[in-house]
Design brief:
heterodimer, A: 411 residues, alpha/beta, Aspartate Aminotransferase, domain 1, 7-stranded mixed β-sheet, 39% helix, globular, B: 149 residues, alpha+beta, Sufe protein. Chain: A, 4 strands
Chain lengths: 411, 149
Amino acid sequence: MKQAVSFFDVWKIRQDFPILSENVGGKPLVYFDNAASSQVPKVVIERISKYLSQEHANIHRGVHYLSQKATNSYEAARERVKRFINARDPSECIFVRGCTEAINLVAYSFGKAFIQEGDEILITQMEHHANLVPWQVVAEERKAKLKIIPMNENGELILEEYESLLSERTKIIAITHVSNALGTINPIKEMIKIAHKFNIPVCVDGAQAVPHLKVDVQDLDADFYAFSGHKVFAPTGIGVLYGKKEWLEKMPPYQTGGGMIRRVTFEKTKYAAIPEKFEAGTPPIMPAIGLGAAIDYLDSIDFNAACEYEKELLEYATKSLCEIEGVRIIGNAREKASVISFVIDGIHPHDIGTILDKYGIAIRAGHHCAQPVMDFYNVPATARVSLAFYNTKEEIDKLVEAVKKTIEIFS
Amino acid sequence: MSELNELYQQVILDHNKNPRNFREIENADRTAEGNNPLCGDQLKLYLRLNGEIIEDISFIGSGCAISKASASMMTQAVKGKSIKEAEKLFEEFHKMVTGKMDVEVEENHLGKLKVFAGVLEFPARVKCASLSWHTLRAALNNEKTASTE
């Protein structure tokens, strides 16, 4: 039977994102920096505007109408997040500022409770600094050892080495789901299964995965899963830490203060249950509601078709860039999300970025907060094109033209 | 694309491809390292002084065309000058790339360095152009590192 291919109307989708019809420097915007921050659909902007104009108040505190309304909206957003990643319970979804804070929370709190001198923490060679530095700090503080799962030239983790690094000393494993610098999709379901054979919990950095893949934390059996709102069509200032209840309940608070207590006296404080235990202070209410609206938006489009379309774009962009003489793609994993890092002989990525910008094309040039990855490939930086489902083949053609012009300028 | 031509002038592209004074100096009197953590640009500067005169100056490192060409032209500009003159040039260069001086109107000693006036249109690249100058100042002040963060 022939599989039905659902039609993805990118031109209709583009209408949902006001910024995509903006000009930059007199040229139509070509936005290829989605791995840094994705753009925000109109429905999210409108939802935020409605909240600020009609519902804004502090949550969980007032008995008044607005506070109740804001609380409801905030908790409804948590419910949406729960559905989005298929958590068992909304209380397992903690709102934080972003993916970085989510990982810092786990590193600090899990570290304090479970990591001791001589223990080992396992991360991978392709981690973003956000899933590296917090573990480095914890390792230093707890006198534990940080061990690295290596990767091959293609930018794929070497799984045989991974297994051999596991021991009873390993207390936690932190892995990125999708590499922000290389685009590699790691086989985390398989890796979690292996870790669980040794009863080791796994913390997944999902920042680059949620915009491109359907994530199901129960299916993955992840112990912790972190992501940012602003990479998945929501505003900045909101992120999510999913954690299995059995872990979160055993972990001490990350920050303390208002909103996370049950009873305070000068002698002793009893903490609230999860998720409040980990949400000290007034949380980012407006961005959380924005994230809820972004999830609603993703529910309203055919996300599977969007993912298929993105794959097509990735193939087209990879092929088009490879055909340009002097362009070399960094990261050629078999399983990739729509992130393409490349370098051009004799031209620094920053010069590429500046020239492309003059053509209205926004890319990222730099080390992508993954300096060990740059060291591995012996490059100071790369140019990175990261796609979203609202990008088009026409935009990729413009990129190719601008890259050719760049080479011409430097020839 | 006049702004692009303004930024990537032939002289800048030439200095990027064939940087001048691109070497180490053995027994240098002063050295300093410059880092642009945002870009990953890094350079090491070597100075040999004869009293108040910068007798020899060189650099090594990696970076974008703007930072490399700027370092190359900076070494040419200050070689043989006094420390005071070099500091004056730093000030003028800094004013130019941050838009505090119109080099076509106000009197200055920048000469060839005026090609970097185009950087003004590219705020993200001002740091690239000024990295070597900050490193020079660090070296003259006997500091080991300069950062444009």
